[in-house]
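DM between two lab members

TW: hey, do you still have the Threonine synthase entry open?
JB: yeah, one sec
JB: this one, 466 aa:
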Amino acid sequence: MQYVSTRGQVAPKGFIDTVLMGLADDGGLMIPAEIPVISPEALEEWKNLSYEELFQQIFSLYINDEIPAEDLKAMVKRSYASFRTPEVTPVNKINDSLYILELFHGPTFAFKDVALQFMGEFYSYVSKKQNEIIHILGATSGDTGAAAIQGVRGKDGIKICILHPHQKVSKIQELQMTTVNDENVLNLSVKGNFDDCQKVIKDLFADLDFKAKHHLRAINSINFVRILAQTVYYFYAYFHIDAEAQASKKVNISVPSGNFGNIFSGFLAKRMGLPIHKLIIATNENNILERFVRTGEYKPGDFKSTHSPSMDIQVASNFERYLYYLLDENVEKVSEYMKQLQTEGKIVVSPELLARVQNDFAAYGASNDECLKYIGEYNEKYDYLLDPHTACGIAAYQECSEEDEVTITFATAHPAKFDEAIALCMIEQKFPEQISALLTKPQYQQVVDHDQDEIVRELEKFYGDK
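TW: and the structure you got?
JB:
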């Protein structure tokens, strides 16, 4: 298996080099040169695997034997040892047409743990094997930062800096990042929004001299290992709904979406042969992805703060990966479209391409009021408390599913992380002990302006300017 850039100007790479590169050196995103297709017979055999065994089966198709099987098995075991359930991502049946895949049983109570606990182990493995200095740089809309820090804190040979938008994440998200006082962790609170933070990250990774000088590695979903690790739970979810539902109904998956990484993992799973009917993109009022699916126009709009802050994103960094496949892997066309986005501020696809988009995805953007409505309704009707991002997924399920379909909605975070929204529904929840403990801890962060030069100065001090 070789990996290539969506823009075609990077020589094919192996798995480890692809992960270490993060953002491709030509500004594109790395993707597999070909996607392995799983036979129906193999899918049937996979149904009885544990989560960890399924993870190993899927990764073995992509890693070119660069990681010995026993080493991979040990990394996977360590990655999920801290999860609060042996299933890792348990499936909860709500009614005959709805299942919820719970992705919040990791150490930071969010779906990002599923990929980032492994990624921390992977970087540690590479650092030791190659005597490689690893300096991780990432941006977060809330959950990625906490999960990434938890995955690498205290590990030798690794330093991590996370940028988050100042006062635009939930209080618990902020505390999960900023109460960590390890020497290898730096939190920069940027006066701006997530898109501002993400642009700084992309600009610094595009500066190849700066990237090489400081041994920069990516933790955001621009890194393909994040995409691949998330693909595993699409298979797991499908395998753990009722066999009758699999056999007699079309199976949809509704995914709270902001940066397009999680939903692209589902697109990859479908291309691999998982028989998903509809991939439903669930967004909030920052609904650039919904507008694209409905109209064919990809155009960032005005930023809005919502009850689901992890999806308060206008520029979805993984969109380019989907564009690559939509354009039949034509790297020249991808480059043209991305240049058009940069110069004109939008992409518009043809009616023929839009028809293909609508065959790949359904989409719905939930309003703030709808989000709160479904939190209250599901708490009362099913005694199931949704976090606001999952509530957007439920709204999309309600809007986009038909009678002959069953939908798996992803619960991407524990509701305790977003008590500000839960309280608006007049619901008093009991916090898990690990989250309650955060409320009394001191915080460690530096507030900086949205100024790349100032951020670079802080990075030079943290990583070392040699």
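TW: got it. The longest helix spans residues 112-130. The two ends are 35 Å apart (CA to CA).
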